[in-house]
Specification:
There is one protein chain. This protein is an alpha/beta fold. It has one domain (3-194): Rossmann fold (3-Layer(aba) Sandwich). The protein is 24% helix and 29% strand. It is built from seven helices and ten strands. The chain starts with a helix and ends with a strand. 38% of the residues are buried. The structure holds S-adenosylmethionine.
């Protein structure tokens, strides 16, 4: 049995049944009827949520165990989810088919495969489509709260700016945040890029924030990131565009 099939054994959903927090924050950007590709979607928490927003979703992953659970989650929520079991290292990626491509913690790929994956993500987007990508930075390894142990698999701002230099980067945010998604707990280091191939040309670049567990980072507008302290206290500061 493969590594991921083994991790996905059991009734519980490894990363939970709720969507990834970054993805859920992007709800205002989604339009019912759009087509979406959920890449390495695992047990379907994100693909199912996208379907609940009225999108037509193709959820791909290598794990048959995960995909069976994704099908069950979709059924329980009363939405349809197209599933395809694929190995993304050899997949014949669809070309210009999706309004939205989503990659949430798809850092199983080292540099060579990542180059291939990023080309696949880009190629799958319709012109003007939106790519949502979230992953850990190398700093995450020291936290030891999940994610790959191989630093070369993780993202840095430079890496993403270079890899997506041919795209319009709408938002790029690097920060500490408390992640509580399924079995993942603790103060994790997140790196987010949101890449919009549309007309907007704004770029956000955040600095190191020094947050503590429980602090929240909320992207409030396309050009601002608002920080809130745990417990709903007043925002501590806004970060302005670079
Ligand atoms: C950290 S999990 C993230 C799952 C999902 N995106 C989420 O956020 O819940 C990484 C996923 O990558 C999938 N994966 C790993 N290697 C793969 C490959 N070569 N092709 C397709 N999927 C792969 C695993 O099965 C696993 O579901």
């Amino acid at each position: 049995m493969s590594f991921w099939d083994e991790r996905y054994q059991g009734e519980a959903y490894l990363f939970g049944e709720a969507p990834n927090a970054f993805l859920a924050r992007q709800a205002p950007r989604l339009t019912p009827g759009q087509s979406a590709l959920a890449v390495a979607d695992g047990e379907g928490r994100n693909g199912v949520w996208l379907a609940e927003q009225g999108l037509s979703v193709l959820s791909v992953d290598a794990s048959s165990v995960a995909q069976a659970k994704a099908a069950r989650l979709a059924e329980a929520r009363g939405v349809s989810l197209e599933l395809a079991q694929v190995d993304l290292s050899t997949w014949d990626w669809p070309q210009e088919q999706f309004d939205l491509v989503v990659g949430i913690f798809i850092q199983f790929a080292g540099p060579e495969l990542r180059t291939q994956l990023f080309a696949g993500l880009k190629g799958a987007l319709k012109p003007g489509g939106l790519l949502l990508l979230e992953g850990y930075r190398p700093e995450q390894i020291a936290y030891g709260t999940g994610g790959p142990r191989t630093p070369e698999n993780l993202y840095t701002e430079d890496l993403l700016r270079t890899a997506f230099a041919d795209f319009e980067i709408l938002e790029l945010a690097a920060y500490d945040a408390a992640i509580e998604e399924g079995a993942t707990r603790g103060n994790a280091m997140e790196f987010i890029i949101r890449d919009d191939t549309g007309q907007t040309r704004s770029v956000i670049q955040t600095n190191e924030l020094g947050l503590t567990v429980g602090d929240r980072v909320v992207i409030t507008q396309s050009d601002r990131v608002r920080l809130s302290r745990a417990g709903g206290a007043a925002p501590v500061r806004d970060l302005v565009r670079a």
